[in-house]
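Notes for week 9. Today we move from apo structures to complexes. The key idea is that a small molecule is not decoration. When we ask for a structure prediction with magnesium ion present, the ligand SMILES becomes part of the input, just like the chain. The input block below holds both the sequence and the ligand string. Read it once before you look at the output, and try to guess where the molecule might sit.
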Amino acid sequence: MYNLFFDCFAAFWRRYLRRDLFRKVQTLSFRNLDEISTGSLITRLTNDIVQLQTMVQMLLRIFVRSPFLAIGSIIMAVIISPKLAIILAVAVPLLFIVMFFLIRATLPLFATVQKKLDKVNTVLKENFAGIRVSKAFVRAGYEKDRFHHANSDFTQVSVKTQRIVALNMPILTMILNISIVIVLWLGGKNAIDGSFEVGRLVAFINYVTQVLFSVSSVAMMLVRISTAKVSADRIQEVMHMESEIVNEANPTMNSYKQGEILYDHVTFSYDPKIQKPVLQDVSFKVRPGQTVAIMGATGSGKTSLVSLLPRLYDVTSGRIFIDGTDVRHMDLSALRERIGIVLQESILFSGSIRDNIRYGKPDADDEDVIAAAKAAQAHEFISSMPEGYDTMLGQRGVNLSGGQKQRISIARALLLRPSILILDDSMSAIDMGTESRLQKELAKLMIGRTCLMIAQRISSVMDADLILVLDDGKLVAQGTHNELLASCDLYQDIYQSQFGKEVASHG
Ligand SMILES: Nc1ncnc2c1ncn2[C@@H]1O[C@H](COP(=O)(O)OP(=O)(O)OP(=O)(O)O)[C@@H](O)[C@H]1O
Ligand SMILES: [Mg+2]
């Protein structure tokens, strides 16, 4: 009854701790998440919390009881025979000293064990997420090795730690047995000559056993507490992570929704200490309702440029304004609600297609969902599926093609009717015909709304009001298609590589 009660308590406690930790993770910024691996987060949310729970459980079970048992038994032993009780005065401190060294030896190992477990989880997570790639590249052998290494590292350290912890029991029994032998040796003679009752001698031995067992449980408890401390620190580390992207004290709620964007000498680096700026001194202005295309080689900073707008990251220097307000002065949720973003990598969740489309607006009705899907050129293929919008997607949308996933992601953003829409290379897997239909629908939908579109194909950007050309983090040119053809070498190069020399000279 006693244990059941405490176990239930510990289970509930674990649940709340896990919930709080999960909530905390939801608040972390992209930068925080860059720092800590998903594998490690999973270990912290599972194993570390279980370690803490076990500690609490043991604490309640043992720590509450053992000291009383030990003290009570010592008193009883002294009452029975003060002379024999001197043995306890030697045995108990001896046990404490041995335990102290045990704990000191294991403590650093526990931290390593948890780190190795992080590694196992990271490898597992990466492997499962990328299993198709590893199969396609026939890298199963390599992956097996990688897992084997992580796994055996983890096992080695765990075994080493447990070996030391396992010394506890033999040492305890040794000290106990030696004490009993001494008690029997000294007390036995008195029992034989009748000056000490045999019953009292047996009772005395029982008390000694009780004392030493209690003391060693307390010591084991200390080992537990020290492992749990490692886990607690790891949980604390997440709990204390502060998203550097937070609302300021009195954010502007900015209700008018024109969608004018101004980048003012923006420089940005993911980690200013170790990385040269990914964006350098970028300035441009987008008027409300304009469609802006962003071009540039891979790694030139396109994704970084647009992720500054909804403050997925904050600028290193310079400022970004929407409708005249610095984004850092705006209310974060209000800001993000205004901006619809389709990330470069389409990320879908397991669930129905309908739920995926209305992810950002769960109360949207079917009509809106269908309208968004139609605009994103997704309605047709969704309707041709046997269960239409109720088709269940597997994990990360495995049962869809790349282009289908992209179109569902676009529908998801369009449903929000954002005043600013960001498409990060979101049509790369969509054929040209579908793309041009999609572009037409977008143009209709986005009247009066601003659209930032990253694209690789000149054909996708020709009609844009403004084209930005990025090269290695610098904005090397901006203008319309015709202006850039006339003035920007890089743009001409891209144009020629896609359309051939002759067309270029005619254009
Ligand atoms: N989370 C990150 N942490 C550190 N560096 C990053 C991070 N994301 C991108 N980078 C670096 O920033 C630079 C610009 O990356 P970015 O993703 O903005 O390029 P991109 O123009 O979008 O390329 P692509 O066309 O391939 O998508 C790259 O050199 C990249 O290595
Ligand atoms: Mg990119």
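The longest helix spans residues 86-129.
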